[in-house]
Design goal:
This protein is α/β, with parallel strands linked by helices. 45% of the residues lie in helices and 17% in strands. Helix 4 crosses helix 5, helix 6 crosses helix 7 and helix 6 runs parallel beside helix 13. The protein is globular. The structure holds nicotinamide-adenine-dinucleotide (NAD).
Length: 424
């Protein structure tokens, strides 16, 4: 069969996702039915959301929710507020959530949401109106047993709290905190959730360094993106002895060969909203950061920053993908040929969804864990997943990325088979 072909040159994130899916499908010898079902999303919801802005104008925002798969359980995935959000991006992010939940053995399918907007230029009141209207538009999709959102780029615990509040109004005033994760603690959030993704980046990075025979204290690291994932990853890696020599955000980056003081940088961003104007080093561009002479590179911002155009110039020995989809599929072979080890997004940044799962479990049980319990459960779960991926890579003599896709897709395809012929 197979009329659907592997794309050679891809920049579109959905094509990047599919290129890796076909590779893993071939390694797994996946049947035709599973290929057809898993290569497309199950459902796509699009809403045009009118909002009265603070100046009285009405703007109409485009909002999406893509449910890629519910074979393993209710669909799970963040909501992104960013100007470049489009359907193909959200479709790719939803599929990555499916494979990610499969890789780390969570009882969840994959979904993702997004609104095309510029959150940094909107007031809190405008963001609240937009979030509430999006929740109303997606009310029939969201639910603790059907589809559970979380934060992603441009959204945060406050946005999740507005979703809980609006969802409560739509559901007979019932408090249903398990409808979203990544909430503030006072609204049923989990200890350890804000740092969880960065912690997973740090943990999978250290496990890989040890397999590579590299000592953390001998390593320098550059981190692109200094938001939730990048800032915690950078700080936690520095606590483990790595020297963070470069960081960046959407305004550009900083390089300091002596090491950037993490505590000061994080404090500055808390006070000023970004790294703009922070002076602890020389100015560099985001593009320059990627090709610095460092041991470890952590892309933790947006998709497609490592492409066929710059992959050959990357000098890091290890890339830990904090962001979703930072490497275009076209760059995989170039990195592999150079012997650069890549901890793929669907494993490296899975710490967030693991602790989101713990948050959902705690909400449903009404019993809350200490931060130590959350961290140690999350560390164990991501370590087990890492070992399974690492062993799969060794057995098949394939990259960690291919192995992670194999592990994730295998689990999802098995569940799909168990659902039977009439799955819909
Ligand atoms: P965030 O909004 O908290 O931070 C994003 C950071 O990236 C900011 O510092 C921003 O200035 C910077 N940035 C934006 N565009 C950039 C560009 N073009 N070049 C360089 N920097 C840029 O977002 P986040 O939650 O940290 O998410 C970052 C990435 O991690 C995304 O790919 C997201 O999907 C992924 N991720 C997030 C989580 C989570 O729990 N938050 C979990 C898994 C994966």
């Amino acid at each position: 069969m197979q009329e659907l072909k592997v794309q050679e040159t891809v920049a579109n994130p959905y094509e990047s996702m599919l290129a890796r899916f076909w590779q893993a499908a071939d390694i797994l010898n996946l049947n035709d039915r599973a290929r057809r079902i898993l290569s497309v999303p199950e459902r796509i919801f699009i809403a045009y959301i009118p909002i009265v802005m603070d100046d009285g104008r009405t703007e109409v925002f485009e909002g999406y929710r893509v449910v890629h798969s519910r074979a393993l359980g209710p669909s799970k995935g963040g909501i992104r507020y960013a100007p470049q959000v489009d359907l193909d991006e959200v479709k790719a992010l939803a599929a990555w959530m499916t494979w990610k939940c499969g890789v780390v053995s969570l009882p969840y399918g994959g979904a993702k949401g997004g609104i095309k907007c510029e959150p940094y230029n909107m007031s809190a009141a405008e963001l609240e109106r937009l979030t509430r209207a999006y929740t109303v538009a997606m009310a029939e999709v969201f639910g603790p047993d059907t589809d559970i959102p979380a934060p992603d780029m441009g959204t945060n615990p406050q946005v999740m709290a507005w979703i809980v509040d609006e969802y409560q109004k739509l559901n007979g005033k019932k408090f249903i905190p398990a409808v979203v994760t990544g909430k503030p603690l006072e609204m049923g959030g989990s200890l350890g959730r804000v740092a969880a993704t960065g912690r997973g980046v740090m943990h999978t990075g250290l496990l890989t360094l040890s397999k590579m025979g590299l000592k953390p204290s001998d390593c320098t690291v550059a981190v692109q993106g200094f938001g939730n994932v990048g800032s915690y990853a950078a700080e936690l890696l520095s606590h483990k002895g790595l020297k963070v020599v470069a960081i960046s955000d959407r305004f550009g980056g900083l390089y300091n060969e002596k090491g950037i003081r993490m505590g000061d940088a994080i404090k500055y961003v808390k006070e000023h909203g970004s790294l703009e104007g922070y002076k602890d080093g020389d100015k560099i561009t985001n593009e320059e950061l990627l090709t610095l002479n460092v041991d470890v590179l952590v892309p933790a911002a947006v998709e497609n920053v490592i492409t066929a155009a710059n992959a050959a110039n990357i000098k890091a020995k290890l890339i830990i993908e904090g962001a979703n989809g930072p490497t275009a599929a076209e760059a995989d072979a170039i990195l592999e040929d150079k012997g650069i080890v890549v901890v793929p997004d669907i494993l490296a940044n899975a710490g967030g969804v693991i602790v989101s799962y713990f948050e959902w479990v705690q909400n449903r049980r009404g019993h809350y864990y200490t931060e130590e319990e959350v961290n140690s459960r999350a560390d164990n779960q991501i370590e087990r997943a890492f070992m399974e991926v690492y062993d799969t890579a060794q057995i098949h003599k394939i990259s960690l990325r291919k192995a992670a896709y194999v592990v994730g897709i295998r689990r999802v395809a098995t569940a799909l088979q168990l659902h039977g012929k009439y799955y819909s």
